[in-house]
Amino acid sequence: MTVFRGYMKMIKRNLPIMVLYFTVFICVSIGIQIATGEEGTASFEEKRLKIGVVDKDGGELAKGLAEYLGQAHQITLLTDDKGLIQEKLFYRTLDYVITIPKGFDEEFLMDGNTIKTTKVPGSYSAIYAEQRIDTFLNAMQVYVGADYSLTEAVELVIDQGKVEPKVEIFDINGNQGEIPLYVYMVKYYPYLFISAICCSISLVMLVFKNKEIKRRMQSAPVSIVRQNVEGILALAIVGVVFLMLVLLVTFLLYSKSMRDDPNLKYQIINIVLLLLVSFSIAFLIGTIAKNSQVVNNIVNGVSLGMCFLCGVFVPLDVMGDNVKKISQFLPVYWYEQNIEILVKYNHLTEVLQRQLCKGYGIQLFFAVACIGVGLVIGKYKAQES
Amino acid sequence: MQLVRDKEDMFWAIMFPILLATFMYLAFGQLFSSEKLEKLIPVAVVVESENAESENFQLFANEMSDILSVEYVEESEALKLLEEGKIDGVFYTGNGHRLMVVGSNWNTNILQAVLDSYTRNEAMIREIAQSHPERVETAIQNLSEYKSMTEEVTVGGGSLDTSLSYFFAVLGMACMFGCFIGMRCPIDIQANLSALGARRSVTPTHRLKLVIADLTAALTVHFFNVLILLAYMKYILKIEFGDNLGYMTLLCLVGSMVGVALGMFVGSIGKISENGKIAIMITVSLTSSFLSGLMVHSMKSMVEEHAPIINRVNPAALIVDGFYCLNVYDDMRRYWISFVTLVVMAVLLLGGSFVMVRRERYDSI
User: Fold this and answer.
1) Are B144 and B296 spatial neighbours (Cβ–Cβ below 8 Å)?
2) What is the model's pLDDT at position A125?
3) Mean pLDDT for all residues in chain A
4) Residue B265: which H helix or E strand, with range?
5) Which pTM was predicted?
6) Which residues of chain B have pLDDT under 70?
7) Alpha-carbon distance A120 to B329, whole Å?
8) pLDDT in tens, A313-355
9) A169: exposed, middle or buried (C-beta count within 10 Å: 0-12, 13-18, 19+)?
10) How many angstroms separate the CA atoms of B217 and B209, rounded?
11) CA nearest A161: which of A246, A221, A73, A100?
12) B310 touches chain A (CB under 8 A)
């Protein structure tokens, strides 16, 4: 086991850097989870926005609109000062600004004029304010068209704004439709696993690419297969320790939610397969790349790219079918699909179990294929040198 | 020129941001550009009792055929379909309207909005039927002409595309990744770090001259890479960057300078191994890009809310802010503030780097 010991020695030497990678990537993953957690909640539950209203008209309709918006959001009346609006949006004192033009009452009722809105760039939540404005103004047109006075119409629309639709949850996951908290973190594992494992493992693999070390190993009476197996075994230890640490951090943060999940064992199988996938990608990158900078560029491309395409950073629901067809070739897509099944269903029927196994199988196949390709490239490169 | 000759390094340095921008473009294409749903949302309607209310709802559901794919079934069948994931929700009608879903997602959110809209419209028509029955037909006609009454504009008056924030963040990250090119410069100057450094140390050329020459070469190469990315986004992906390309290029130049200067600074720290330096740079550039909204677009706003000082000193956030000022806020004053802050950062980092590499003496052993 000389090669194994050699790898372990290199792992020990690079341990501080590996710890740094682990810390950075886990912090970034937790940060992403917190940020998207807030955004995700905002996507489905109406968030109270800070809305600025520039009322250049001052008419009844404009006042009614401000009052109607005020039922769900926090309203601030603003003067028409571009610098002030820029300032407030830039520093997030306001999320959204609407400008009601002069003569809005008359023009709106005659021509159905639109009003101009400005939001903080990148805010999904603004859609709720837009919906509310649309509902108010469309309802006003209906009432006024039916011979109601402006005052009556405003009063009626404001009253009707207080009624909420009745939505019930069909509890099939035993958690009232809510996703167990720890799964929010598990969803972002692909970024953490691929980035941290690739960066750490490649550190060690690159050492063994040194021309002199390579020549010495080739002249040793140990077959290339055995050298590869011992190397993979040593690197696998890094993977296993990494997995333990990640699960430990998740458990410390969400112990109750993990313990209560009836599908925990299936989630863990999914996570172990993701580890295998990440490990195989790391092995392949380590075989192809010749230095740390190239590794860094490839790792960033692969990890961020997969996360954007496979539903980690952007929900799959909102992606086009053509994009999903590409995503289906990637293992992270199947990892995320399996999570979807496991959080949605408490009891796994035969059909669901088959779907789950398909996801597991594709991940496993991808991992084996990557390691196979890595070994072939490694052998080809060794012969070439 | 040595930097350019390393083809593999150059290939990945250019390819990585281009690939990332392409992946983002694919992922966000549907989200922001298209307002039309590609697939209908499958739902079931359960009629609890036959009456005028349920008849109206069925008419409404049929009219929503451009969004919904409706099946009329018994409750047990509907719940079975819901459990199997074949439909996204069940509308109950006849004894008041309600919606049943298994959890929250994009589609159930749309279903909720559909029910909300129907409930309000129904209340409105009921009110009109009581007070002005002769106007009900006109009201229904007006209802069917529902349209968007808002027009989104930037403070400057131009239109705004939400996905822009991600592409700004990619540009910010690409600038920051100049640190990997910049790191080579001090390594190639210091005798204890490379053979080339040893050779250059014995030349009579002033260290500042060496530093400036290396910086210029690294900056030129990196800036060229960033320009390729900018051109790719603008002309191949057709991302709407507006008419401020000159100022954007200038910001890319100063951003690239900060990236390269950061690399030179970290590379000058003598006692850390090359892998250690790369790890530090990954940490700094990645954290900086993450906080500027690379992975989650709302991150920068969250930082602004909770710890605004970070946005004032985070180079990637300053680059992104500069792009916002040009394309969204139409605010040149803040653009120049970001610009000058970046220049100051670059000068400080280069100064620090020079202080570390100057007057290095090596013992004869």
Assistant:
1) no
2) 62
3) 83
4) helix B245-268
5) 0.78
6) 1-9, 12, 29-38, 155-162, 192-193, 359-365
7) 10
8) 877 776 777 788 888 999 999 999 999 889 888 778 888 889 9
9) middle
10) 12
11) A73
12) no
Chain A interface disruption, residue of B229, B291, B298, most A CBs within 10 A: B298
Separation of alpha carbons A376 and A284, rounded Å: 10
Number of C-beta neighbours around residue A215 at 10 A: 11
Q: Which of residues 208-267 of A touch B (CB under 8 A)?
A: none
Contact state of B99 with A296 under an 8 Å Cβ cutoff: no
What ipTM describes this predicted complex?
A: 0.75
Element of type H or E holding A134? helix A126-145
Measured CA to CA, the distance from residue B365 to residue B362 in angstroms comes to 9
Residues A36/B296, Cβ–Cβ less than 8 Å: yes
Distance CA A309, CA A322 (A): 11
From CA B202, how far away is CA A118, in angstroms rounded?
Answer: 61
* Nearest alpha carbon to residue B225 among B282, B176, B263, B294: B176
Choose among A147, A156, A293: nearest Cβ to B135.
Answer: A147
Give the count of Cβ contacts less than 8 A between chain A and B: 289
On chain A, the residues whose CB falls within 8 A of the CB of B37 are: none
What residues of B are in contact with residue A156 (Cβ under 8 Å)? Answer: 124, 127
* E strand residue ranges, chain A: 50-55, 74-78, 96-100, 115-119, 167-169
Task: Tell me the three state secondary structure of residue B295.
Answer: coil
**SS3 of B83, please?**
helix
The predicted-structure confidence for B230-280, as pLDDT tens digits, reads as follows 999 989 988 878 778 899 999 999 999 999 999 989 988 877 888 888 888
- Contact across the interface for B155 and A118, Cβ inside 8 Å: yes
Question: What is the least distance, in Å, from the CA of B204 to any CA of chain A?
Answer: 31
Give me the residue from A143, A301, A323 closest to B30, CB to CB: A323
What are the tokens at A132?
């509310």
DSSP letter for A291, please. S
Reading the block at residue B266, the tokens are: 């970290």
**Per-residue pLDDT tens digits for B55-78:** 888 888 887 787 788 899 998 899
Token reading at B49: 């009792």
* Residues B352, A223: Cα–Cα separation, whole Å: 50
How many CB atoms lie under 10 A from the CB of residue B287?
17
